[in-house]
Amino acid sequence: MSSTPLWRKPWRPHEFILSREPRRRAAASRSPGYRAVADLLAQAGIAVNGRHGHDIKVFHPDFFRRVLAQGSLGLGESYMDGWWDCEQLDAFFHRVLRAGLEQALPRGVRELLHACAARLFNLQSPSRARRVGRRHYDLGNDLFLAMLDPHLQYSCAYWKQAATLEEAQEAKLRLICDKLRLTAGMHVLDIGCGWGGLAAYAARHYGVQVTGVTISAQQLELARRHCEGLDVDIRLQDYRQLRLQADRIVSVGMFEHVGPRNYASYFSIARKNLKPDGLFLLHTIGSLRAGLRVDPWINRYIFPGGCLPSASQIARASEPDWVMEDWHNFGADYDLTLMAWLQRFRRAWPQLSAAYSERFRRMFEYYLCACAGAFRARDLQLWQILFSRGGVAGGVRVAR
């Protein structure tokens, strides 16, 4: 069997079933499950084969039965297979989530098995942790260089006074550094440093030394080039192997891969690697509800083993070791960030298409639009949480 990832294989037309013939649409309306799905979508103001941008166009008669049987996984996979389409996919998900329709979809067998496994096993153990690096962050630096800003920030930007993605991502980096009260000569530990954008920014503009860790080989390669000539050390290392004493710790977009079974140890490890008077900033996507909230399609195709934390889970896990100095929610800004990435991805597709399949394009656009719709519906949050080990005298006040 070939080791070439599916998304890197040449696209063959028979792998992508898509027909816009009127008779195909007529057949879909007579398909098993049509009425149940159409009635469900109508609760969100979405029509099957309607005329609005958020309406869906169905091309395969088995679409309705597949969604009813497999839920979120069936919805996403059938989109990748070209069984349905939507002109404004982000608006479709916004409406679906605002109406709470995801609660009405069935939980597929795979989703139930994953939930059971998450309770029985540590799905984010060191031996399993590198899966997300291989599956997602190692997709290809060409993809992320085309889609992201010059700082290579693959996390929520801060749009308070920004008009472009570049301005918003730089504002996010400045916000983090100011919250951490960085001064020249400090040693900063960046857990989950990505392509080194934050490390390079902090070293260049604040005169600090940075140690960054990632579990992605491709991130490591590009991050080292990005930080060349700066006081930055990028390592291919799991956070559980850290043994140092930093003045500050920052972790951006990494906690989503830690998993509930590891939250307590994560906070304990951070404490052991921070000096007594240090500060720790955690930047993470958050869930409204506690539990093993894992979307089966996202788990299979985008972030294997990921799990979004709730506020109560973070508070409970951090309570033994930390004083929570500040909690900042700007989740609505992730909608703007994701839509900016989508625009750049589409603009770059003519060049990327030589290396990636059409099925990959549909998968990646589905992922970006689904997440944008979720943040727009306020179903997902983005939190920056500032911790200290023993409380900062006089408190911490950060201009936002």
Automatic annotation (TrEMBL):
Database matches in InterPro entries: CFA/CMAS (IPR050723), CMAS (IPR003333), SAM-dependent_MTases_sf (IPR029063)
Entry keyword GTP-binding: no
Keyword Transferase: yes
Any GO molecular function: cyclopropane-fatty-acyl-phospholipid synthase activity
Keywords per UniProt: Lipid metabolism, Methyltransferase, S-adenosyl-L-methionine, Transferase
EC number annotated for this UniProt entry: 2.1.1.79
GO terms under biological process: methylation
UniProt record similarity statement: Belongs to the CFA/CMAS family.
PANTHER family recorded: CYCLOPROPANE-FATTY-ACYL-PHOSPHOLIPID SYNTHASE (PTHR43667)
Protein name in UniProt: Cyclopropane fatty acyl phospholipid synthase
Organism of derivation: Chromobacterium aquaticum
Gene name of the record: cfa
